[in-house]
Design a protein that fits this description.
The chain is an all-alpha fold. It folds into 2 domains: 1-62, no CATH class; 66-93. The chain contains 5 helices and no strands. It has helices spanning 2-8, 13-23, 31-62, 66-71, 73-92. Helix 2 (13-23) packs antiparallel against helix 3. The chain crosses the membrane at residues 29-54, 75-91. Keywords: Membrane, Transmembrane, Transmembrane helix.
Amino acid sequence: MAIGGAMFLSPCLEIEAYFLSAGANGRGWYGIPAVVLVAIIYNVITLSGMLLMVTLGRRGLKRINPHWFEHRENLITGLTLVGLAVFNFFIEL
């Protein structure tokens, strides 16, 4: 029950409908076993997606030359802060 409760309280609203329908009686699905199955499937798909994205991200980062960023880090930081300040100014109007 703790797995189902934790997944139900997750910020992902889409999964809540699956937990509610899996836990309801009908069409051969009954309570806790169905909720556990949905939780396992949800975890496997989520973790697989995360690992795939991290792997692709690492491959992409290997192509970037960090030497360019090291010599321009102050400029990049300054421009980012100025850009965020301008963005915040127009959002607050």
